[in-house]
From TrEMBL:
This is Espin. Residues 342-360 have a biased composition (Basic and acidic residues). It comes from Geodia barretti (Barrett's horny sponge). The keyword Repeat applies. ANK repeats lie at residues 97-121, 131-153, 165-187, 233-255, 267-289. Keywords: ANK repeat, Repeat. Residues 329-361 are annotated as: Disordered. Coiled coil: none annotated.
């Protein structure tokens, strides 16, 4: 959700200069109203609504976002007040995804707007979107500790409420929020870090997926979470880190926590399969070159990481893995297969170095050795 907002110029967007719309520059008055609401131009909002008679309830955005949704998401409190108090806009209106203005204000980190919508707009602090998310889940995604505290301590929102997938606010915070939010939920609100979602995921899986390395370390080193714990599909935190392309987390789990770089999930899926399928070339190279993962390894369906990458359109990864497969000798064809196993029976005087030398020479160059009878 936050990614969706940022793509439209929200807090943290790289677009620092807002577009100031005019009626002539837009396709319709309603789209101009949406832009004015997003960018905080109250005078333009009033002009469009009062003089051009644009419906303040109109939704022309693909996600069915109203002017109130936009104003709430970007913290335009003066516009929110105008739309609610003077234009009677409904504070419980929902977009395509079932989110209310309160959900968007929370995910956007707009504490002042959240307080207004609850205290003066009559919004339910426990209202749920179509996916079961509450404003607290959204606040945890925004990473705003002050908002999380406000909803829990002042509005009595259940700190362990679950969304439609069984995910708790702690799951969301572990993936998206700074460590301080995670610690607040666990240490002050006594949220259980062993609670699983309906998919069997723990907060540590979410932290690995989100690349929150400090949270991963905290959960393992201070909370005692198993770095090899598995979800219902057999995924470990390493699988999750590979899905998210989290290079530092991958290194930490393998190098410091001794997680097997080729650990299998259900159906024989390895971390290399996951990284390849999701298009993370740096992680793929790390697994193959640093941790010597087999580039041609197959899952239970007989699919290699390169084939998965090709199916997903990750051409560079597919080509890289293909070239690495050719560089790795086939396990089925070792360089030296002795015709007579008696060649492996050396005298007691044979040194380790001599045995190694004989095993690595071509058959034609191996000197005759005395066969020792049983």
């Amino acid at each position: 959700m936050r990614k969706f907002l940022l793509s439209r110029g929200g807090r943290g967007s790289k677009t620092s200069l807002p577009f100031q719309p005019t009626v002539q520059q837009t396709v319709s008055g309603s789209s101009a109203l949406l832009q004015a609401s997003r960018n905080g131009y109250l005078s333009q909002v009033k002009y469009l609504v009062e003089e051009r008679h644009v419906d303040p309830h109109s939704c022309e955005d693909e996600a069915k976002l109203s002017p109130l949704h936009f104003a709430s998401a970007f913290g335009r409190l003066d516009i929110v007040r105008y739309l609610v108090e003077e234009r009677n806009c409904h504070t419980e209106c929902r977009n395509k995804f079932g989110s209310t203005p309160l959900h968007l204000a929370a995910v956007g980190g707009r504490l002042g707007t959240v307080k207004y919508l609850i205290n003066e707009g009559g919004c339910d602090p426990m209202c749920r979107g179509r996916n079961g998310w509450t404003p607290l889940h959204c606040a945890c995604e925004s990473g705003r500790l002050d908002m999380v505290k406000y909803l829990i301590e002042e509005k009595d929102v259940n700190s362990s409420c679950q969304n439609g997938n069984g995910g708790t606010p702690l799951h969301v915070a572990a993936q998206h929020a700074p460590l301080e939010v995670v610690k607040y939920l666990i240490e002050e609100q006594r949220c259980d870090d062993s609670v699983r979602s309906t998919l069997g995921s723990l907060p540590i899986h979410a932290a690995a997926l989100g690349g929150r390395l400090d949270t991963v370390k905290y959960l393992i080193n201070e909370r005692g979470c198993d770095p090899m714990c598995r979800g219902r599909n057999g995924w470990t935190p390493l699988h999750c880190a590979c899905k998210g392309g989290r290079l530092d987390t991958v290194k930490y789990l393998i190098e410091e926590k001794n997680v097997d770089s080729s650990c299998q999930a259900k159906d024989g899926i390895l971390p290399l399969h996951i990284a390849s399928s999701n298009g993370h070339l740096p992680v793929v190279k790390l697994l193959v070159e640093d941790y010597h993962c087999n580039p041609g390894v197959k899952d239970k369906s007989g699919t290699t990481p390169g084939e998965l990458a090709q199916r997903k359109g990750h051409v560079e990864i597919s080509s890289y893995l293909s070239s690495m497969e050719k560089a790795v000798p086939s396990e089925a064809s070792p360089s030296f297969i002795p015709e007579d196993t008696s060649l492996l029976r050396e005298s007691e005087d044979a040194s380790h170095e001599e045995v190694e030398e004989r095993l690595t020479k071509p058959i034609s160059s191996v000197p005759k050795v005395e066969i020792i009878s049983a």
